[in-house]
From TrEMBL:
Membrane topology classification: Multi-pass membrane protein
Entry-linked InterPro entries: GPCR_Rhodpsn, GPCR_Rhodpsn_7TM, Olfact_rcpt
Keyword annotations from UniProtKB, A to Z: Cell membrane, G-protein coupled receptor, Glycoprotein, Membrane, Olfaction, Receptor, Sensory transduction, Transducer, Transmembrane, Transmembrane helix
Primary residence: membrane
Function as written in the Swiss-Prot or TrEMBL entry: Putative odorant or sperm cell receptor.
Cellular component terms (Gene Ontology): plasma membrane
Protein name stated in the entry: Olfactory receptor
Amino acid sequence: MDPEVRANRTSVTEFILLGLVETEQLQSVVFVVFLFAYLVTVGGNLSILAAILVEPKLHTPMYFFLGNLSVLDVGCITVTVPSMLARLLSHRRTVPYGACLTQLFFFHLLAGMDCFLLTVMAYDRFLAICQPLTYSTRMSQTVQRILVAVSWALGFTNALNHTIALNTLNFCGPNAVNHFYCDLPQLFQLSCSSTQLNELLLFVAAAFMAVAPLVLITVSYAHVAVAVLRIRSVEGRRKAFSTCGSHLTVVCLFYGTGIFNYMRLGSEESSDKDKGVGVFNTVINPMLNPLIYSLRNPDVQGALWRVLVGRQSLT
């Protein structure tokens, strides 16, 4: 697009991210807390990834997908938190227009990938528990790679569509974003042109990327529940439910906060609730996932211990 046409259509060249708090004393506290959360999240997820790579017991489809989820968690918190920490250090809250759109693109790429990967993980549990005789052939390494590649492609398409659609809006008035990162609901409120088509696109994308996967996850686990209840061994039922319980917990956290965030486009003003949900989506969820998946999993705990103390697996 011609730069002159672009300048005439959009006068805003940067946005002001208001952040989480206003006072300087609280900003120091926020910096320390979020820096600690970032280091813990990156360290925890990279530890999970290292354990999966070095431990032969974990070279299975379930842990292959879990490793990809760990990469997504590191990416999600890296897209939002380091830039916020840099603004707190520099006391500059402005973000260039292009940088804001770039952040939004990568955030929705990773969030969209998360939706599909959680669905793939539910499908993996369905095959492993309900159809164990054909599991190894139906969830081969080739199939695993194809499922992950398709998830990345769908996430990329979703993020690109939203970014291009947002780039067609006019921003010619207020440029203060009441959040600590750039996201669609807050930017819609600053546009001086109609956002009806953008909101319709977000609604359709939500149906395709949130509702449909959630339905598939629910159906998969309904079949899993029926199959597990048929297992006569109490220990067998406990083990089956424990492998699914971690994934279900992550699904509930991810979709619960996501639905709250993107189904409130009718509200006129951003609130502290939006910031709280944003913190949950970008910081707390990625930080909790390694704990959730390792808390009741002796295989992961053993692999993590061997990674941390530098001992090789005995198997």
